[in-house]
């Protein structure tokens, strides 16, 4: 794939439909998301999404830390926005799910997750960035590992020891023959399926959504520029127009995925915090 | 841990473009750590402090409102008490006035009665006095007339004798006491 070695052409709007000769359409694929900036082309290359992630951290820190440094009882416009976001995470994702007794100690984690994922997801349609950071598996995986470690640690602490924690996976009052089967199922759920789905759901949604935009925009461009007749050119325009609608749909998905990731993290923690399984 | 690092030699995602890249994971971890630290040390404490302050402010406001309401209630009760008192006072005054009016009327009536009695008395006295005067006057008149009459009948003046009025007076006194009938006077003369 020639695009792999020409990373500058990643920007969807700039990617040439076909290099040289203008013959043949190169279908955008997963490989398009690989975009090293410097440090070679290997495992330790510094990539564009890594840069975007760092920028997003700076942006979130500036927005929230800056605004919360000078809070007033009667909020300004910016504080209103900050409070709205904070309230949403605090009350909807934190207090209502984890419970008013324990939610405050997990609030920094939930708030960090939500803002980081939301901003990076929205970067997928922000002009000049146009890259959903979490379409790279490495990032959601890191966040998932953190959530994974958190809820297991909390569970072991709350259930007084690893053994009690493992025992608590099986709901009480079951017939003895059912217990081993259920234990295996619950163990898989807690230790394999939950982290896997948490990471892959976010990554898959971001990747697929962006890939779809790429296909519609690049395909539309190719049809428009290289279409043999007016029908194909019209289809190209239609495809481009459809991508605009898809972009708004993407915005919804981006918010929803940030919400779902944080919601599930809160649910897992709430599960671990609760006295009984 | 990083199956990708095995493949990582040349062109990282070669063959497995979806595998996580170690550098990205490290950056992700660092980014998360920085943001988590900022949120934990700055954003959440500041926001929670604000919420506590706001709650305190609202509770303070509510307490203030409650106090104001209590004050208003007290004022209302006081006003009602004063109103009731004023009503009682007014009723009392009205009652008093009525009693006073009745007393005044009774007094006036008594006074008028007394006055009327007095006037009647005075009139009686005056009438009596006038009657007495008339009787005296009449008596002297009758005496004179009868003397005149008698002298005309007798043809000579009896005046000298009548100067001694005792006769006439005695006669009249006899007449009054009923011992002499008038006819007899005529006959006798």
TrEMBL record, chain B:
UniProt organism field: Knoellia koreensis
Keywords noted in UniProt: ATP synthesis, Cell membrane, CF(0), Coiled coil, Hydrogen ion transport, Ion transport, Membrane, Transmembrane, Transmembrane helix, Transport
One Gene Ontology term, aspect cellular component: proton-transporting ATP synthase complex
Compartment annotation: Cell membrane
Family assignment from sequence similarity: Belongs to the ATPase B chain family.
The keyword Cell membrane is annotated on this UniProt entry: yes
Superkingdom per UniProt: Bacteria
Residue ranges that the Swiss-Prot or TrEMBL entry lists as coiled coil: 58-103
Self-association and partners: F-type ATPases have 2 components, F(1) - the catalytic core - and F(0) - the membrane proton channel. F(1) has five subunits: alpha(3), beta(3), gamma(1), delta(1), epsilon(1). F(0) has three main subunits: a(1), b(2) and c(10-14). The alpha and beta chains form an alternating ring which encloses part of the gamma chain. F(1) is attached to F(0) by a central stalk formed by the gamma and epsilon chains, while a peripheral stalk is formed by the delta and b chains.
Pfam families: ATP-synt_B
Protein name: ATP synthase subunit b
Mode of membrane association: Single-pass membrane protein
One term of GO molecular function: proton-transporting ATPase activity, rotational mechanism
Keyword Coiled coil carried by entry: yes
Role played: F(1)F(0) ATP synthase produces ATP from ADP in the presence of a proton or sodium gradient. F-type ATPases consist of two structural domains, F(1) containing the extramembraneous catalytic core and F(0) containing the membrane proton channel, linked together by a central stalk and a peripheral stalk. During catalysis, ATP synthesis in the catalytic domain of F(1) is coupled via a rotary mechanism of the central stalk subunits to proton translocation.
Ranges annotated as spanning the membrane: 22-39
Primary localization: membrane
